[in-house]
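BUG: 3D viewer hangs when loading the predicted structure for this chain

Environment: internal workstation, default settings.
Expected: structure renders.
Actual: progress bar stalls at 90%.

Input used:
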Amino acid sequence: LISGLRQKFISTMFGGRRIVRVLSEAHRGCGASSYVKHAKSVQEGLYEFSARIPRRGYTSSVTTYQITNKWLAGGILGGTAAGVFYFSGILHDLGHVCCEDLTKEGRAKFNEEHYSRGLNANFLCGSTDEVIALHAGPQGRFEKEGREIARHRQLIVSKIDAVIPGGLGGKVIADVGAGTGLFLAPFSNAVGSKGEVVEVELSQQFVNHLKVRKTADKKQLPSKVNVVQCTDTHAGVQPDSVDVIFICDVYHHLEYPLAFMETLQTALRQGGRLVVIDFHRDDAKITSHPPGWIYEHVRADQATFRSEIEQAGFRYVSDVDIPELSENYTMVFTK
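Structure tokens produced before the viewer hung:
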């Protein structure tokens, strides 16, 4: 195992893209016990609970505390020799952490009691099987019919198709925060064989799942499908490469919204569209959760989110009225 990890580490350090893999379960509050309980998680740990390093600099996830976790993990897995090996890489990481700005802005202020383990801990903690079991399928948090977004996903895609100049056919659409791939099939059918769906996701667990779906469902997906792993501050999408960006019930989970949205603004082609769907921060409109939940879960209202998105360089176009969505609003922006 250690030999394999060492080869992967060397290949990423000296390849075109450098990747720092961090065991962030303990830092994010997931608890180290899962590594003892689940042997598979031990093997996946160094390469699943991670933050990729974009060309523009280190992400917020790379901290001295997490790098220390990385060193300790190396020592636990392979003894002193492995610990020393990883420590040599950690010194390299720390040099960049000390010398480079971690982000262009401060972290978004969210309710730390509500998100006691971290803003995205539910998607980053645990093995791939555990995370997918919690979120996918008829009873999963993302895909159950009780979630209005899941129930009306086909309608949402048709509404988007209507507001995109020329429609979705043949377009490249980036589904940011793709999760379990709820919109993968609807978008693939909408853009067709000449289009492409780019599934952008932070969670390594969801990335693993999306790659499996991409292969397993290949015959049912008419479009090209690409799975991209983003970071807290960088979408990982090439400049001027997408026609439509779709962010559904995800914006309030962006830890560094300005930095992240600026990379999306760069990725959007001139005249393209950004579609943002998120929760009304209004108890009277939320029926799927207990009273007060929305004020703890979503940090700001629609006006605030619109202002932030405009600050990142997008221009507001209009709201889209979807009466079937009582809990969510829909905004459209352009470049």
